[in-house]
Amino acid sequence: MERVYLKEEGLPFCKGCGHTTISENTDKALQKLGIPLLDVILVTDIGCHGIIDKSFKMHTVHGLHGRSVALATGISAGLSNPDKKVIVFIGDGGVTIGIQHLINAAHRNFNMTVVIHNNMLYGMTGGQPSEFTPQGFKTPTLPDGAGEKASDICAIISAAGASYVSRVIGIGDLSDHLAEAFAKPGFSLVEVMEICPSYGVKSNPGMKLSKVVQEAGLEIRVYADRNIPGPELLSESKFKSLFTGKIDIPVTHVSSLKSTVRIQVAGSAGEGVQSAAEYFAAAAIASGLNATKKGSYPVTVGIGFSASDVIISPDPILYTGSPVPDYLIITSDDGLAYAKGALAAMKEGTVYIDSSLPVPETKASVVTYAFREFAGSRNAALVGFLYLLKEAALYPYEALESRVAGRIGKTIG
Ligand SMILES: Cc1ncc(C[n+]2csc(CCOP(=O)(O)OP(=O)(O)O)c2C)c(N)n1
Ligand code: SF4
User: CA-CA distance, 245 to 169, in Å (whole number)?
Assistant: First the structure.
């Protein structure tokens, strides 16, 4: 079967790894259901299974170890859209670490499918046992075999109230099992029992997967099939989509921008960097463009650098990262230190830097301007964006000026 959701190149797992079977069957199951590529959001956990996200073409989000279901819960509630399919890939290690997230999401029946890659050990870190390692199963760090009985995640999640729960052996064609779970409203879970050839097989020579599963008392069957819609899908739901009603910027200006432009602004905390980037993005939308804005700052938000990456484009923006900016605005010494990477990476484009700062080394053109002096340090980033519009005419200057009326009090000359 031709791939639709997976890229054509080879998958990143060791030869014979069950994770390959799951990924290929996920592609096949989604094809069977005909879910549009960009309606699928895959959240991956930490572990070998999680390195698959670069091989898939749909939206992917890489979570912290054990926290992928918590992220997926937020995505599911934030979308509140039955046409979107949220899928979580997580290992038995991640389930061990974050089991409460699974119990809560199942209990509240959030709309998602969790696919547990249960290879009965922690693959990525060399084969430590998890809560789901069967008694007697050996791993590199437990050469005498696990002393305790494995927990039964299907029984736990079924008891928590999930809409659909099943356990399958991860060999051969699993696409119908996965498609069944993907099609259920509410919280569904498929635990795929598989092997890790690099650590599981080596520590248990001659092991037969189905025999290990059977001897562990883990039944291969459907544990729950209740067909209950998730809370976000109920008509009286308190979970309203974040995409309705919130972003309502009327188009009042016209931009002649023909292609995507990436802008990074780098300054100091407390100097209005994030709000300036938001004003600039909103004014781009008011000029008929698409815009994204991403903030970067240390956890101590009141001190140090504050930076933002803004993308504006006449076309839909499908990837919001902006590794190399076309324009870089630097308004303070904190910003200059932060922007070191961008300055080195820019082979062209323009850097606008406050005239109080040293002229940096870069292959881009450098323009100096007294951003800080013009309307005070609190407005330096905003002045930077206004100056950029004067110079580069990405969209009408007035679109931004009218949004920030009164903050600057004079026009940039
Ligand atoms: C909170 C936290 N604890 C520990 C780790 C280290 N760590 C990285 S991958 C991994 C094991 C992953 O095993 P599993 O979830 O079963 O996935 P697999 O590698 O088998 O696909 C661990 C313990 C981490 N990244 N974060
Ligand atoms: S180490 Fe094990 S779990 Fe990780 S990719 Fe290799 S076979 Fe798969």
Answer: 45
